[in-house]
Design goal:
alpha+beta, 6 strands
Length: about 270
C-alpha cells in the first residue's frame, strides 16, 4: 500500500492539482478521532454541508472531523447514515420539483444513490493527503478535465479497460466516498449543484476518487503514462507553419519584390 507522502508527491508531480488531494476515512462509534481535527460546530460555531468540510480541507489545508452535530445538509445526513432514511426521502419528495418532474422519478433517483446504513459510521475524517495523521480509505482529487483524464489513464494503465462512473447531478459526496468505498473502484466525480453552491466547486473542476489501497497502482500508472508521453500540462503540437490573412502576406510579397529590384552588392 502506498504511503501518504509518496502518493502525494506523485499526484503533485504528475497531476499538479490546484487544491490539496484529500484523505478521507469513515470512523465507527468508539474509534479514535485525531485530536487536532477541527470540528465545525465546536470550533467554528456553525453547522456545514459535507462538501463544505471537504473544501475547507482541500483549500485551507485543515484536518476536519464531521459528525451528526456538525452537518446541516439533510441529504448528507441520510446518505452518510447519520439520520434514518425515512419514507419522505424514499418517496422522492426532496427531489421532485427541483431535480425531477415527479415524486416517482425522484424516488428512482434517491434509490440509485449509494448510502451507508443508519448509524454504520459516526464521523467523517478528511485532511490534505500529505498532512493526514490517519490511514485514509478513500482519496479524492479535484482538478480540471485534463487532469482528471490523466488520472483515468493512470488508473487503467496496468489492466486497461474503461472506468465506469454514474452521475445524478446531486449528492456528489456520496459518489466520491460512499460509491468508491462500496465498489472498491476509482470513480470520476461530477460536482453536484450543492457542491457548487455551498462547497464552491468551480465550473472548471471535476473530481476523481479512488480507494487508498489503489494508490500504488495509480502511482505506477502516472509514471508509466508520463514515460509514454501522456502528461499534464498537455503538450501542444507546434511543429507547423501558420497561415496569415492576405494583408499580412502582402508584406512578404512587397519584401520579395524589393529584393528582386535591388542589385546584388559588389
Amino acid at each position: 500500500m502506498a504511503d501518504l507522502k509518496h502518493l502525494d508527491e506523485a499526484l503533485s508531480r504528475y497531476v499538479r492539482p490546484e487544491t490539496f488531494p484529500l484523505a478521507i476515512r469513515m470512523v465507527r462509534h468508539g474509534e479514535p478521532v485525531p485530536e487536532k481535527s477541527r470540528r465545525p460546530f465546536r470550533d467554528l460555531k456553525v453547522q456545514i454541508t459535507t462538501c463544505m468540510g471537504y473544501t475547507m480541507a482541500r483549500r485551507y489545508g485543515w484536518a476536519m472531523a464531521m459528525c451528526h452535530e456538525d452537518i446541516s445538509c439533510p441529504l448528507s445526513k441520510v446518505v452518510y447514515g447519520f439520520e434514518e432514511e425515512v419514507g419522505y426521502f424514499k418517496e422522492g419528495c426532496t427531489c421532485a420539483g427541483m431535480y425531477t418532474a415527479t415524486k416517482e422519478a425522484g424516488a428512482r433517483t434517491e434509490a440509485a444513490i449509494a448510502k451507508f446504513s443508519w448509524k454504520e459510521y459516526e464521523t467523517i475524517l478528511c485532511a490534505p493527503l500529505q498532512r493526514a495523521d490517519f490511514e485514509p480509505q478513500v482519496v479524492v482529487v479535484y482538478g480540471n478535465s485534463a487532469q482528471v483524464m490523466l488520472l483515468v489513464v493512470a488508473a487503467l494503465f496496468k489492466e486497461g479497460g474503461r472506468i465506469t462512473s454514474s452521475f445524478a447531478g446531486r449528492i456528489d459526496c456520496s459518489d466520491s466516498v460512499i460509491q468508491t468505498l462500496q465498489t472498491s473502484r476509482p470513480q470520476v466525480i461530477l460536482p453536484c449543484y450543492g457542491d457548487r453552491v455551498f462547497g464552491q466547486a468551480q465550473d472548471h473542476e471535476m473530481g476523481f476518487s479512488f480507494p487508498f489501497s489503489f494508490g500504488d497502482s495509480l502511482i505506477e500508472g502516472l509514471e508509466g503514462a508520463y514515460k509514454g508521453g501522456v502528461r499534464y500540462p498537455v503538450p501542444t503540437y507546434l511543429r507547423y507553419q501558420p497561415a496569415y490573412p492576405p494583408s499580412y502576406t502582402k508584406l512578404e510579397e512587397i519584401w520579395a519584390s524589393q529584393r528582386q529590384d535591388t542589385p546584388p552588392a559588389k
